[in-house]
Amino acid sequence: MTRTFTCILCPNGCEITASAEGGKLTGCEGNRCPRGREYVRQELTCPMRNIATSVTVRGGALPLCPVRLTGPIPKEEIFRAVGAIHAVSLEAPVRRGQTVLQDLLGLGVDVIATRAVSVLDGRDG
Amino acid sequence: MNRRFDLVIIGAGVIGSAIARELSRYRLKIGVLERSPDLLGGTSARNSGVLHAGFNNEPGSKMARFCVEGNRTFDRTAAELDVPYKRTGKLIVGFTADDYDRLLSLKARGEQNGAPGFEMAGRERIRELAPAVEGEFALYSGSTGILSPFQYTLGLAENAAKNGAEFFFSHPVTEIARIKNSWLLTAGGERFEARWVVNAAGLFADRISDMLGIPGYEIYPCRGEYFLLDPRLGPMLPLPAYPVPNYKTGGLGIHLTPTVDGNIMVGPSNEYIDEREDYAVTQKVMDLLIADGSRIFPHLKREFFIRNFSGIRPKLSGKKTGGYHDFVIERRDDLAPRAVNLVGIESPGLTAALPIAHEVIRLIREIEPLEQNPFFDPIRRRTPSFRDKTPEQQAELIRQNPDYGEIICRCETITKAEVLAALHSPLPARTLTGVKYRCRAMMGRCQGGYCQTRLADLLMAETGLSREELLYSREGSWLFTGEVHPQ
Amino acid sequence: MKAAAKKIVIIGAGPAGLAAALRLRDRGERDIVLLEREREPGGILRQCIHDGFGLTRFGETLSGPEYAARFTERAAGLGLEIVTGATVIGLTTDRVVTAATREGLRVYQAQAVILAMGCRERTRGALSIPGQRPSGIFTAGVAQAYMNLKNTMVGREAVILGSGDIGMIMARRLTLEGAHVKAVFEIQPYPSGLPRNIEQCLNDYGIPLYLNHTVTQINGDSRLSSIVVSKVDEARRPIPGTEREIPCDTLILSVGLIPENELTRMAGAQIDPDTAGAVVDEHYQTSIPGIFSAGNVLHVHDLADFVSLEAEALADSVLEFCSGSLRGCPIEVSGEGCGHVIPQRVSGKADVTVSFRPRRPMRGCIVSAVQDGKRIASKRLPRANPAEMERLSIPASVFLSQSPIKVVLQDD
Is the pTM of this model over 0.90? Predict the structure, then answer.
């Protein structure tokens, strides 16, 4: 089986043609770095993605705080993950890098705030 | 409970507002019913913004008389109501011998109508007046000008409100009955009772006329599309430039008009449509505007296009007859006692608005004396416009009010002070477009890319409207479904 | 108005302005002020909450706010003067900068001015899409600001016009926040955003991308009710008979960015019609001495990393200018087969890297610098894409004369 992949690991977006047998990677062409091969291997078994969303902040200078995951999760878990994150609400002030959720859905990654949010009427984060 | 008034005006366009303003000189309790959620929802906001001289209309017609009169008295009107305007003069350019003859007859008609300041201009004179305009020769009309149709309508309406007229928005009139000696109107789910009714309903004037018991009128909606150009081109066109008009079609031809704010408008086209409020723009007409506009102004290029829009003329002359039907301004005591019926108020209605209002008053006074309102104040003032000031004046404005130091609309240099003024004027903005028309934020080349989120914030903060309730312009034009994440 | 003397005034505290300021500071310059119209520095990155920033520069993948924080936190630590809430309303040829703030007008007489104002989005009006004028039509960046900064949801059923990166990123964001994104339509025969975004923003969510399609009609007299899309021919003209109506309440436009050069024009600097940014020399100096330009205000970049790197190179030139030692740049540079070339003038006395964008997707192509009919530098590109900026280095040693240089991109 031969399939084409667009590697998403960096802005190069290499178009990789991979051949696989029984889910095992046998050939890989078009990747400009070794990470491309790893990407394809992962795509063949369990595609992984990082996601970004936001959560509400109570009493903050901004209504929302943007968040992301500390590492990728299986693609099929994205919507469940977003649901779990949306259930969270933070209290201002929020620190950049602050853990918003630990071990999201037991997937081994944390959700972290990607900016500071100061208390309302205080200085913007 | 009925709301009681001496007089109810249907429609808060420039005509309804002018009537309200002039009638507020008298001791009358005035109500104005407007179907849109805000002022400027219809034709009054969607036109060329030209102060016409009065050479396009038949001598002796109301159109001609009121246009010339409106032009003659506009200096004072603008001073009282703080309306930005400029007597730029205007060129009607021609290319052929036939054109030349038609321009001569236009000139003769203008002079017969009593408009001043005409001259025939050769190529040299055209160059001198407008170097970028093409044409072999032209009729120059010295008394023509440009004005802000937004500020004129706002000025009239705000001044009327200041002098006691009450405005009801989102109040479309759905029923009119004559009970005993008064009119009973249903509008926006409320009942209004009045001795007098004035129909200034513009595009819907025929329907209101029917409801009043005066049948037989039909409004033929006739759409005109425009392009709005980047103010970078503005200096190239100091005055309106028109082609020789074609009276068969009933429009003035694709022309180029500078706006008081420094843009140029190209248009309007002239197309009879079925839907009265189909404010669409079409590919066909856009192509036509570019082709026709380029003939007299060869600098039209796509990179200068900011926006397209269309306006709809409420014409009494249909596609077959074409041309212009004179304004109908009548009192039909036989069919509808104590009602003044205005139908077919199209161009030059903007220029003629105050003389039209005076005609309405004349018709009322024929059967009822009016007593002066001793408290009438003719003056309306806008908030100072930051961008029109010198740096020293700007510094002083900020010193007096720090909101002047916060630029909300970057393209047009509109400050928070001016946005807040729009939200707290005598008839405050209630929609995003209402804010735009009042203070010009979002009218620039980025079309709100920078300021729209800020305006929405201010609009919600000052009016208490929620995200879901916020409107872009018309009823139903919701902007948001709510919060991304409910708090 | 009395002007305060300032060595370097930077207009805009986004990635370009901040990177330039920090570089100047690192090289010992302290007489700098940044003027920022927002309430905080960071520029457009503040609303780009997705990850993928910083791989080239920091070797890790950051969200926009985190990338901005790399600069803003350092700036704060160094006590760099950043005036926020300051909108520049005047810039003269002799470098007088006027900014409006709530505290009053600030007027500076600068020795050097750095333009770092970024860009704005192309709008429906600029495209002249036919149809009615309902609510529900947003540029991608405005929708992004509403959603990511204002907690405001713009619609339920969305269609995206244009395959720019922000549009695709908003397709994913809308989907994750509960809206239904029906499709992305692109008028060109190739996508205008990065391949990785097609993969992770569209393909991952089953959002179809239709090339050679555009919106030919907008319906709805209050809120958007539907759009009509049509296929287009090679000349991008809609093909009659291919119309398809799609019910939706939201149309997101991601149809291009325009460098924001009103102040540049006000100062009288020459503008390149291809980039819509200033014409600059290899020092990033505009046609007005002492006024420099870098980042998205100069030409639209694909990655924030290249914005900040370009701004740092600019900062070095500004210091040379202030000490009176900038080389003259008599050699004109133009492109052939590529959209635009930056810089438009070089000295021929120093190594220089030119940036350009291909006009169409190409596989196996060669870019060369040609002077006096001779190829003086070249590079093979296995793949070139209009969505990505490419570069070619020309060493000082290879220049033959002061004749113009042509940067030629052609199939191999």
Answer: yes
